[in-house]
Amino acid sequence: MLRWILGGREAQGSVEKGPVLCIGEEQPKNWFTELQVLKGHFDIVRFLVQIDDFRCASAGDDGLVLVWNVETGERLQELRGHSQQITAMTTFTCNKGGASHTSLITASSDRSLSLWDPDTGHRVQTISDLQSSVKCLLVLERLCVWVSGAEELCVWNEDFQLQCQSQNHSDAGITALIELPKNCIAAAVDKDIVIFRLTVSTDSSMSVAEVRRLSDHQDRIRALINVNDGLFASGSHASELILWDAIDWNIHGYEHILWEESQVGAQPEIRLAAHKPSEMSIQHLTTNGRHILAAVGGGLYVYSVLSKAVVAYRKCAHDSNVLHTMLASDSQLMSCSEDGSLRMWEIQDLPLPGEPASSGFFGMWTFGRSNKPPGVAPKKAAEAAGIRTLELTGDLIGHSGAVQMFVSFGESGLVTCSTDHLLILWKNGERQSGLRSRALFHKLEESGGL
Predict the structure, then answer these.
(1) SUPFAM superfamilies in the record, alphabetically (predicted)?
(2) Phi and psi angles of residue 428, each rounded to the nearest 5 degrees, phi first
(3) What is the tens place of the pLDDT at every residue in 182-199?
(4) Are 334 and 394 in contact (CB under 8 A)?
């Protein structure tokens, strides 16, 4: 049995069940048939960070950081201190003396950085009057330091003491940071990737220096991710996906993800027919080490690290730009979009020549508005060899605004945040029903009712 969820918005703590449509006989595992709306923010919620197995933190344009219990939907802490929007947020876990504790680091447009204890809600450390707003954060757990990216790159210790910093780069500043082997850091600065090396002296003092600048992108870099121990990837506003060697920083693979009809006899090429610059931009990259999922405008493209080619795609996966993605496995993935939906996909073979392209189980249903992505135009057999498509398997509609991102907690559920100021906790209805039944039987046993 397949279930389609239509979510509404109610007060915090309410639980809703969506209408159920029975198609087929078997229900997929971990299907989200219940939702819980979480209120607390009064502006756009842009960031979600997982603290542990049961807690997450949310932040956005209201400057608030809220800590939630994803099992119960309870708001645990409200962290107040920033006067303007949050621009970056991450967890920071430092192991010293056999004990570890996870804190939250936030950056804001008010040109400050804060360290928070999510257990108590207290602000432990703060740094104000920075030269510019920090746009990204990176934690180097092995060295027990963290890095902030703004117009300059700064390295801080666990006590919020500045260890070293680089020179001013550009007005655009650093927009993304990742850790590389051998104490190196890659930073996205406009069209370039700047490689920094962090040196730790015998007296534990640190210094940072630029050692390489990679200028192979033709447009501004929008995404930067680690792929595995030996590779990292970057995506640009002009839909360029570049795979880099993490040791020598040379290009390992290159793909210009656009879709155009290939000429007769020409080498087939993956291209997306996009006329607006925003539709050509790589909005987000994610990976499982074997594949890279690229969100290009409203489309999704799966790139194989091994074959260095796009192996599956859906050029119109959403009605608007895709903002966040996740590769659950080599065949299952998720995406959320400005169109207000979060969709689940399965990689499947393209139909044989002459067969119509299927729009998925849900293509025959509409509720108020069409949610069916346009079908993928059939290709010639020679062109379709090795290329697969993404089949829609689920569509979660509950937000009235753009879904900014989501975080999965496995069986405990899925959390989404949006421009509508809300968080939604999506849960497996069958699992929740079983948990409620066990809790009821336990209570009856304790009271002697059984």
Answers:
(1) WD40 repeat-like
(2) -75, 115
(3) 999 999 999 999 999 999
(4) no
